[in-house]
Automatic annotation (TrEMBL):
PANTHER family: NA(+)-TRANSLOCATING NADH-QUINONE REDUCTASE SUBUNIT, NAD(P)H-FLAVIN REDUCTASE
GO molecular function: iron-sulfur cluster binding
UniProt superkingdom: Bacteria
Boundaries of every 2Fe-2S ferredoxin-type domain copy: 5-101
Keyword set, alphabetical order: FAD, Flavoprotein
Identification of the protein by name: Ferredoxin
Coiled coil: none
Keyword Disulfide bond in annotation: no
Flavoprotein among keywords: yes
Length: 110
């Protein structure tokens, strides 16, 4: 199945990542594209270090996983946040890397 999906990361100077050939989690696709992305638990949904804030395109994402629902219930994920290791992108999305998920060796824009 062929689909077109692009992720724009606003606070990485509007970095565009083409996900057309990636059908795995957003985290996996970002890492595969060469981006460094925080994921302390190895992408297993056991922490919230890989979280992203969705600016546009929440409807283009897979439903919330069990892990995401648990973290939302514990108020560790806001309504506009998702775990990149738990979601599949199905269409264009614009996101922001929250301060607590930023890596120290990367310069983020505002």
């Amino acid at each position: 199945m062929y689909f077109m999906a692009k992720v724009i990361i606003k606070n990485l100077n509007d970095k565009a990542v083409d996900l057309s050939s990636c059908s795995r989690s957003l985290l996996h696709c970002l890492l595969e594209s060469g981006l460094d992305w925080m994921h302390a638990c190895g992408g297993k949904g056991r922490c919230t270090t890989c979280k992203v804030q969705i600016i546009e395109g929440m409807e283009q994402l897979s439903p919330f996983s069990h892990a995401e629902l648990k973290y939302r219930q514990q108020q560790q994920l806001n309504n506009d946040e998702r775990l990149s290791c738990q979601l599949i992108v199905k269409g264009d999305v614009v996101l922001h890397v929250p301060k607590e998920s930023q890596l120290p060796h990367i310069t983020y824009s505002k």
